[in-house]
């Protein structure tokens, strides 16, 4: 009996040591960051250098996704736009919707234009591509995005994966 008692005590103590181990390398949830969405509407003009900025507040390790509203759908940017040829306009017109961000701001802008945006678009094209453009900024934790398998180009997949509520999106209009 004296030989079995120390073995039972060691087994009992080791059970508590291993069951109290809090290190779990498979945890991908970032508990201090919550996914958020914000809509921003603005116009790209020569006065604002074809860019506008929206303030945000995120950790430096978090991820920003920006989608452009196409009416019934959302399109992930950056996205190159190829403008169809039009009589009296330059040919092979193209530009890219793009964005840059830091922990305080997201700047949505037009890059890589190969023509003068002020004079190279018809009024209808300017309304379609430059005026009153609506973007949805989605802030997500970086740790949850790593190897998550979510398709970020599919807006609905992102909303479902991060359990976001479309009906509670804050809307901001940029007037600059």
3D structure, described in words:
With 176 residues, the chain is of the alpha+beta class. The protein has one domain. Helix content is 19%, strand content 32%. It has four helices and nine strands, in the order H-E-E-E-E-E-E-E-H-E-H-H-E. A five-stranded mixed sheet has the order 4-3-8-1-9. A four-stranded antiparallel sheet has the order 2-7-6-5, with no helix packed on it. This is Lipoprotein.
Please outline the helices and strands.
Layout: H1 4-19, E1 36-42, E2 51-55, E3 63-69, E4 74-77, E5 79-83, E6 93-101, E7 105-111, H2 123-129, E8 133-140, H3 142-145, H4 155-161, E9 170-173
Parallel strand pairs: 1-9
Antiparallel strand pairs: 1-8, 2-7, 3-4, 3-8, 5-6, 6-7
Signal peptide: 1-23
Keywords: Signal
Protein name: Lipoprotein
Fraction of residues in helix = 10-25%
- Strand order within the widest beta sheet: 4-3-8-1-9
Q: How many strand elements?
A: 9
Inertia-based shape: elongated
The poorly predicted ranges are 17-32
Question: N- to C-terminal separation?
Answer: 85 Å
Name the average pLDDT: 83
Alpha-beta content class:
alpha+beta
Total domain units:
1
What composes the largest sheet? 5 strands, mixed
User: Strand percentage, roughly?
Assistant: 25-35%
């Amino acid at each position: 009996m004296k030989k079995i008692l120390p073995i039972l005590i060691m087994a009992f103590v080791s059970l508590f040591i291993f069951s109290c181990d809090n290190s779990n390398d498979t945890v991908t949830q970032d508990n201090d960051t919550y996914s958020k969405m914000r809509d921003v509407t603005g116009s790209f003009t020569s006065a604002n250098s074809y860019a506008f900025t929206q303030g945000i507040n995120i950790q430096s390790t978090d991820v920003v996704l920006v989608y452009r509203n196409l009416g019934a759908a959302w399109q992930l940017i950056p996205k190159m736009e190829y403008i169809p040829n039009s009589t009296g306009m330059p040919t092979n017109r193209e530009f890219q919707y793009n964005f840059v961000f830091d922990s305080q701001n997201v700047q949505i802008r037009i890059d890589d234009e190969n023509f003068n945006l002020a004079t190279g678009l018809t009024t209808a094209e300017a309304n379609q591509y430059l005026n009153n453009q609506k973007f949805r900024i989605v802030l997500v934790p970086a740790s949850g995005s790593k190897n998550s398998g979510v398709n970020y180009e599919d807006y609905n997949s992102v909303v479902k994966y991060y359990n976001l509520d479309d009906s509670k999106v804050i809307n901001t209009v940029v007037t600059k």
